[in-house]
Amino acid sequence: MSGPLAGLRVLDLSSVVVGPVCTGVLAEQGAEVIKLESPDGDLLRKLGGKGRTPGMAGKFLNFNRGKRSICLDLKHPRAKAVLARIAARCDILVTNIRPDAQKRLGVDAATMAEKLPRLIHCSIVGFRTDGPYAGKPAYDTVIQGVSGIAGCFEASTGEPRYVPMLVADHVCGLIAAQQIGFALYRREKTGRGESLEIPMFENMAAFVLQEHLGPMSFRPALGPPGDQRVLSPEARPLKTADGFIAVSANTDAQAHGFFRAIGRPELIEDPRFANVAARTAHTRDYFALRATALVGRTTAEWLELFTRHDVPAMPYNTIESLLTDPHLRATGMVREEEHPTEGATFAIGAPNILSGGMAPTLPAAQRLGAAGPDLLAEAGLSAQEITDLARDGALIQPEETT
Amino acid sequence: MSGPLAGLRVLDLSSVVVGPVCTGVLAEQGAEVIKLESPDGDLLRKLGGKGRTPGMAGKFLNFNRGKRSICLDLKHPRAKAVLARIAARCDILVTNIRPDAQKRLGVDAATMAEKLPRLIHCSIVGFRTDGPYAGKPAYDTVIQGVSGIAGCFEASTGEPRYVPMLVADHVCGLIAAQQIGFALYRREKTGRGESLEIPMFENMAAFVLQEHLGPMSFRPALGPPGDQRVLSPEARPLKTADGFIAVSANTDAQAHGFFRAIGRPELIEDPRFANVAARTAHTRDYFALRATALVGRTTAEWLELFTRHDVPAMPYNTIESLLTDPHLRATGMVREEEHPTEGATFAIGAPNILSGGMAPTLPAAQRLGAAGPDLLAEAGLSAQEITDLARDGALIQPEETT
After folding, report:
1. What is the pLDDT of residues B262-281, one digit of tens each?
2. Does the residue B226 lie in any domain?
3. Which of B290, B315, B340 is the last residue of a domain?
4. How many domains is chain A built from?
5. Fewer beta carbons under 10 A from the terminal one: N or C of chain A?
6. Residues B40 and B179 in one domain
7. Could you tell me if B26 and B163 lie in one domain?
């Protein structure tokens, strides 16, 4: 069995999160991903928190499974020719290098398209190059601030805040992989590659506007923006006697089940809560009631009661408790794995099931430059050429890196 | 010019957010999307906030651009045969109907594959069907609670909270479209369709774990989980004299530029802040310093200063202010549009640029059942058959809906 992208080769000129998420998805679907790194390596190797050996931070491991690392010093005059030879063998190039730096390296879409008309060139940028913010530097938090994500928190709790994840990077990396899939499909029809520009700001602004423009979609506005149910400051897991629980009770049947489960069936007749329209008009009261309703029993007791009353509810997980979640363990989404160079680790599995075949379990993330000599040999370089490149400092091998 | 999915037809048996996001992406890329609705219509038509006419809430409009609506009463004995005729013309079927209900309707993957071997069947579920949570009801907040998204907030501020967007629904809809693209590519190679299972829990748990497992990726753990910089409770837009600003100053050059811009160059030599390692060890101090550093000048003044000192910074946008953002207006991401039935509206554009051609601007979201008779005629039904179906209540036409 193999994944849908088996047989495709990806040149990954990206680092940190947005690009590596994209190429991680492509690897998960069976593509061969060649991760080209500078002598410093992907910044996440060091910035990704503690590791057992230098350059192998936990966060780096989890975003770079299934990729082959080659380390080239592109400042070296002979390294650019090597890059060109590798690129010539690839179907897809993914980069989050800024457009002007892409040009200096000769890996911009126009330059590549001349030599490689079948290449799909995916450039992830902060801002679309056809608007006034073109070329502005983009980092996840800057994008969260300018795209309205932090603004959703202000609309909810009164205080702008970032989602405590690199959500703009992560989502845009998923979107880049998505758009590459569509371009691959088109290439089968036309025989031609193309270039894709994936702008983080536009994608995240569209995300926020679709969610929350609401009554302001009309001119003049029919009311303030925002889905008030989603923006309620009480939209959070509910406190139980021994922790928290995630409950959703939005339809009438669910809300009525909730009232029965908490031993207050009289609320079914309460005009504030009797139906969806009433509860929407009294969101604050309804959420406030829910916030304190569950402190008298344990999470396990509530889960049983809610199951009995057909109220959707699940245990609340912390980051830690995901590791022992019975469903994630049973499906292999969280598994224990011996990393070839880093020892005992947890590995995160592939979430989606494709009946047409899935890629085998991906090998673990590599140390900087680990696949360099192999990749050059596969690209047709002789053993002598590879030795020379290493001696001249154009190719950096893992023994030399820290 | 046309999008990469031009010529493909999608049967959309989904509602609310996760499925409509998926089929919205497919429409944006040029596919014809047939949105089949029950007589009540997609729940979001009513639950999506205020609209000018019943069933046309703002939120519904923004998730359903470019789709053709047909309204069938599938409880009617003749409606199922009509559904089968429409499905037979489609390349892709997307549904978030629960697996057991799919079987009752005869639209589950196994049943469809027998008749339509080239169909790509995409079933979006809460939990993978090969684990103990299979079949549990899934709603966005329940998924946010069980997948650790709310847990990230606890790790940050001490209080579990949901992202004030339907982020699990929205992200999994994007992923569903991504996986469909890969299956389309494979179908070109093999000639065969396949079935996809897109589980929300697994996808969001993987999202959280990749971001934050960090030092707990190792066994035994090298430390508590979480990227502490991202989890800092001070990770938020900074207050200025007249609002907020989004600033990122993580590299040494950026941090030093920040210190110069705020008129405190002596901090460059401060051992707590001199380099990345020092600032990571003193994240709390560094973020606290930043939190109050900008209250003396306006956002516009800071943007100019930060540009001069090469510090990445952008204006902070609320949901409202996105509508007047100069870049979004210039790129057509936000534009004014006369909706054919709902009057003056704002429309949200397509973010990504594909050099191989993009779909024309999508038509606006339709009223319930608006394209029903046309779609049936295209499926080969005679005018008499369509009239009969309408008379018998199997086909609901827009005049009859509210």
Report:
1. 999 999 999 999 988 899 88
2. no
3. B315
4. 2
5. C
6. yes
7. yes
Identify the residue whose tokens are 């594909």: B354
Task: Please indicate, yes or no, if residue A332 is contained in any of the structural domains.
Answer: no
pLDDT bin (cut points 50, 70, 90) of residue B402 is very low
Task: Judge whether B39 and B49 are in contact, CB under 8 Å.
Answer: no
**Out of A63, A189, A354, whose CB is closest to B179?**
A354
CB contact under 8 A, B174 and A175: yes
Cβ contact (<8 Å) for B217 and A345? yes
Expressed in percent and rounded to 5, the helix, strand and coil fractions of chain B are 45, 15, 40
**Partners of A314 in the beta sheet?**
A246
The two structure tokens encoding residue B394: 């199997």
Outline where B48-98 has alpha helix (H).
58-63, 79-87
- Interface touch B154/A195, C-beta < 8 Å: no
Distance, CA of A237 to CA of A313 (rounded, Å) = 10
pLDDT at B83 over 80: yes
Q: What CATH number is associated with residue B301?
A: 3.30.1540.10
Helix ranges (H only) for A129-223 are: 140-146, 149-157, 167-190, 200-212
Model ipTM value: 0.98
Q: Which residues 105-124 in chain B show a CB within 8 A of chain A? A: 109
Task: Identify the closest residue of chain B to A353 by CA–CA distance.
Answer: B197
Q: Is residue B215 part of a domain?
A: no
DSSP-assigned letter for residue B58: H
Q: Which long-range contacts (CB under 8 A, 24 or more apart) does B363-366 make?
A: B363/B65, B363/B66, B364/B61, B364/B65, B364/B337, B364/B339, B364/B340, B365/B56, B365/B60, B365/B61, B365/B62, B365/B63, B365/B64, B365/B65, B365/B67, B366/B35, B366/B64, B366/B67, B366/B68, B366/B69
The segments of chain A whose pLDDT lies below 70 read: 399-402
Cβ contacts of residue A36 below 8 Å, gap of 6+?
A11, A12, A13, A70, A71, A72, A83, A86
pLDDT at position A399 is: 67
- CA–CA distance, B106 with B330 (Å, rounded to integer): 47
CB contact under 8 A, A210 and B59: yes
A261 within domain boundaries: yes
CB B228 within 8 A of CB A48: no
| Residue at which a domain ends, from A315, A341, A372 | A315
The CATH number of whichever domain residue A109 belongs to comes to: 3.40.50.10540
Same domain, A120 and A61: yes
* Whether residues B186 and B279 fall in one domain: no
Q: What are φ and ψ of residue A315, in 5° steps?
A: -60, 150
B306 and B346 in a single domain? The answer is no
| Main-chain dihedrals φ then ψ at residue B129, nearest 5 degrees | -80, 0
Q: What is the predicted pLDDT for the residue at A47?
A: 86
Of the CA atoms within 13 Å of residue B79, those in its CB half-sphere come to 21
| Other CB atoms within 10 Å distance of the CB of residue B1 | 10
CA gap B230, B86 in Å, rounded = 48
Task: Report the Cα A28 to chain-centroid distance in Å.
Answer: 13
- Which residues in chain B have their CB less than 8 angstroms from residue A177's CB? 178
Residue A194 is nearest to which of B145, B171, B354, comparing CB atoms?
B354
